[in-house]
């Protein structure tokens, strides 16, 4: 599904060149749950932007479902982001004046879905993220942090993407609430077969995935299967 081949990313400021990624190569198969872990400044955020088709490599290639992302124009990249990738961010990025249901429906508006189908698709996504129905009409400021993150997960799922990309999804949550969110990702992976890539700097969070790719100083330092995953059961919101 995803293949990175000798990816280099260089930023130029005036006469100064900064190489953030240095010949990064790996493959992520359909249905994997992978954590990409590294400290601040390691290059993991830059790599996330490339995996999410928000940026392209300076050198090397990133193939998503066999297509070289660097060869696509802006409209084609936007189409891939809308149809194939669901994003979950640390800061939730919910519209404060819109209800939970309307927040989840937003990607369907951008995708041009028929208004008559949007509500049903949003409701299905909320159920998949284990978000309680009695809160669907609430505004984000009426929800806990964990509930807001589950709304963000539902929004990421509403277009039925082949890839869910989560950037530090527990970063603004306490440990108990973070466990509930990680339980949601594990369920989406085990019960629905979703491909999930989770970006984190915390080993404890990464160990909930089935595989960990360590990145340090712009290079892959380690890539291994998790022998004993941390499994979450019966986690509340």
Map the helices and strands:
Blueprint: E1 2-13, E2 16-28, E3 33-37, H1 44-51, E4 59-64, E5 67-68, H2 74-83, E6 85-89, H3 100-110, H4 115-128, H5 145-157, E7 163-167, H6 175-192, E8 195-200, H7 203-206, E9 211-216, E10 219-225
Parallel strand pairs: 3-8, 3-9, 6-7, 7-8
Antiparallel strand pairs: 1-2, 1-4, 4-5, 9-10
Helix pairs in contact: 3-4, 3-5, 4-5, 5-6
Short description:
This protein has 237 residues and is α/β, with parallel strands linked by helices. It has helices spanning 44-51, 74-83, 100-110, 115-128, 145-157, 175-192, 203-206, and strands at 2-13, 16-28, 33-37, 59-64, 67-68, 85-89, 163-167, 195-200, 211-216, 219-225. The model has no long low-confidence stretch (mean pLDDT 91).
Category by helix and strand content: alpha/beta
Helix percentage: 25-40%
Q: What portion of residues belong to β-strands?
A: 25-35%
Oligomeric grouping of the chains: single chain
Mean of pLDDT: 91
Number of helices: 7
Give the spatial strand order of the biggest sheet.
Answer: 6-7-8-3-9-10
Helix-strand pattern, N to C?
Answer: EEEHEEHEHHHEHEHEE
Span between N and C termini? 32 Å
Largest sheet, if any? 6 strands, mixed
Compute the CA-based radius of gyration: 18 Å
Low-confidence stretches: none
What global shape is seen? globular
Tally of strands: 10
């Amino acid at each position: 599904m995803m293949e990175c081949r000798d990816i280099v990313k260089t930023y130029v400021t005036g006469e100064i060149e900064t190489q953030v990624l240095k010949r990064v190569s790996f493959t992520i198969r359909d249905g994997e749950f992978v954590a990409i872990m590294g400290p601040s400044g390691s290059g993991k955020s830059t790599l996330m932007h490339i995996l999410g088709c928000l940026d392209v490599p300076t050198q090397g290639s990133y193939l998503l479902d066999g297509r070289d992302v660097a060869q696509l124009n802006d409209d084609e990249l936007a189409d891939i982001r809308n149809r194939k990738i669901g994003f979950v961010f640390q800061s939730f990025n919910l519209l404060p004046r819109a209800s939970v249901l309307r927040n989840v429906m937003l990607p369907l508006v951008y995708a041009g879905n028929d208004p008559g189908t949007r509500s049903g698709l949003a409701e299905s996504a909320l159920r998949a993220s284990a978000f309680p129905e009695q809160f669907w009409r609430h505004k984000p400021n009426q929800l806990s942090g964990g509930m807001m993150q589950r709304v963000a997960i539902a929004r990421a799922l509403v277009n039925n993407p082949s890839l869910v990309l989560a950037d530090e999804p527990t970063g603004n949550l306490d440990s108990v609430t973070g466990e509930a969110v990680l339980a949601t990702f594990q369920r989406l992976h085990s019960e629905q077969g979703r491909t999930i890539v989770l970006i984190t700097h915390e080993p404890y969070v990464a160990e909930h995935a089935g595989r960990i790719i360590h990145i340090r100083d712009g290079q892959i330092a380690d890539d291994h299967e998790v022998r004993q995953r941390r499994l979450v059961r019966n986690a509340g919101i």
